[in-house]
Amino acid sequence: MSLVQTENLTKIYGSGETVITALDHVNLNVNAGEFVAVMGPSGCGKSTLLHLVGGLDRPSQGGVSIDGTAITDMKDDELTKLRRRKMGFIFQFFNLIPVLNAVENASLPVTLDGIRPAEAKKRAAEWLKRFGLGDRLTSRPDQLSGGQQQRVAVARALVAEPALILADEPTGNLDTRSGDEIASLLRQVTKEYKRTVVMVTHDPRIAAYADRIVFLKDGRIVDETNLARRGGAQKIADKIKQIGD
Fold this sequence. Notes:
With 245 residues, the chain is α/β, with parallel strands linked by helices. 38% of the residues lie in helices and 26% in strands.
C-alpha cells in the first residue's frame, strides 16, 4: 500500500527568461515500511521533492498524498498538524536547539502538539535509550559528537510515532563511521519499527542501505532500481555517473 504518492508533481521558480523548473511532472509511490533513497546530480530537484512531500513548500502543479490524504490544498494549520503527527524530519545540520538537552530536544514535536511535558520527555527518553543515548539524556548538543547529535535528531523525528520519516542528507555532516551508523539506524527504523523513510543523499555508500533508489535528473525521475540490495555502493556510483553523462 502506498504511503506517499505524488501525481505530476511540478515546481517552477521565477518567470520569463529566469524560469527554473525544479521538478517536472514527477510521479512517485512509496510503500508503507519502505526505505527509499533519492539520488541525482546537484540541482536535480532532490531536496525540492522532499520539501513538497513534507508540505514544507507548495507545488506549482500536481499533488501529494500522504496515507491517502491529499495535502496540496490543505490550510496551513491543518498541514502543520499533519506534519507533527504523521511526519518526522531529519536534516543535515541536526537543527537541535543549543540551550536544550537531548531529551528536551527530542521531546519538542509532542510538546508542541500539546502533550504534557513529563509525558513528552518520557517518550523522548525511550527513543534515545533505544538509540544508545541513555547516558546522555541531559547533555546539550555542544556536549555531543556529530553522530550523537544526529541520533537525537532521529529520536526527535520518531517521538510522535509518525508513519513517514523524511531525511535530507542526514549523513552529509558526519564522518564515514558516523554516517554508516546513522544509515544503519534508518534501516532499523524501517525494519524494526515499521516506519517509512524517504532519504535524499549524494553518497552511494549511504544509498546502499535503502530498499530502492530513485534517480532524478533535470527535475525528472530517470530510473528506479533496487541496486541497493543487488550490488552495493559501486554499482550505485556507476549508475550516478551514467545518469550524469
